[in-house]
Specification:
With about 425 residues, the chain is of the alpha/beta class. The chain has ten helices and 19 strands.
Amino acid sequence: MQSYEPPKIIDTRPFRLLDLPKGPLTRILLGFDFFELALANRKTRRVLKTLDLEIDGFVIHHLEGRHGFNLSFGGGRNSVSWYFLDVPEAKDPKDFKTCFSVAGVDFPTKIRTQPDANGLCNGFENVSLYNSSKLKSGYRPFRETFNVADITKRSKGQQYYNVRYTPISMSGGPLPKCWTPNVTTDYQTSLDCFVKFVQEVFKCGITGYHMDIRSVPNFGKFFTKNVIRTPCKTFELSGVRPQTDSPLTMEAYDIDWLLTNTPLNTKLTINCERIAGIFKLEVPLAQKAITFNCVMKWFTYENLIESKCNQLEIETGCLLEANDYREFIEHWLKGANKEFRYLDIRIGIRHTENMKKVLFGAFKVEECDKRRRTEDYEYTPLHLMPDWHDQTAFVNSRDLRRSDGTMSSIVVHGECLIFVVWQKKTVNKKG
């Protein structure tokens, strides 16, 4: 006779995730849309406040007519993008099925994931509605539909008709079912609500801006107020398209104005595919960190040598030769620019062999230190290079030591020339 085993009882009680200790909870939440968790209710906001999540950047976007922000965290591995769209411009407002409340204002929202190169989710892009129609004359928030009651089925005392109210936009299109009249009338008010929310919950203010000149009413006034007079870590300016199929274009005057007026400690990025007019750099680059994502035929050897930039990235179109870079490195070896961090330039694959021959043969170089841990040093482009972490790029790299003991690396790999000075991270001691 077989012995009887009572059935196992499964504990179906809810798991109190938010009651976990700070360390495990932080690691778990990084796999979720923690920003949506913050918007859920007071308890989740209170818990997230105590975690002191490290935010990489909170960047405001005014780009190609779109207005919003990007909040990145986890070393850039995850991000949340949020944009604001006027109701008359929404192709199908019915797709906005979720409603969030921020600073006492409602935001009907459409949510979609941002896939990475492998198709996995590495962030979220949300689009919320505002309604500028509320400011226009003749605005009617609802459409009235009168339905006559069936006389044969009407109860005594019941009205002969009933009225149904359907939310509508100025164009007459239907609004989402989650729609409420408690929405903002413009993108700037929407941004202000979320800026205040991020400051309160994540203790992070605006770190930078990414924009083009046309997306704000008065670019000079905006730049003066938000970049010159207010601390700003990053500023990225993109060109505009004169027509839909035109390349991103930036006026030569605008580049000169930007290089002249951007504060020295603001990391500057310039994006364009075409420069309208003739641009010539008359004074040395003064900003500490600059990225040029544009054709750089105007960039000369003198511009490179005289530059006071500590972090310089040039994506394409530079006409400098191998001997120009050799003299730049010699200039550094003699003690110039003690705070220099890195130079990252796309030179093209057809130039790499000659570049390695010239640079590796000109100096007393050493094999790359395979035991060096990039996480112990200040950020360089090598931190994001997969071939550096699996040591594939080491065969195309050499270490170089300055007389004061400072170590650097010359990397000529793929289409890139990267010259890096290794600077140890500073440790902030809490007393």
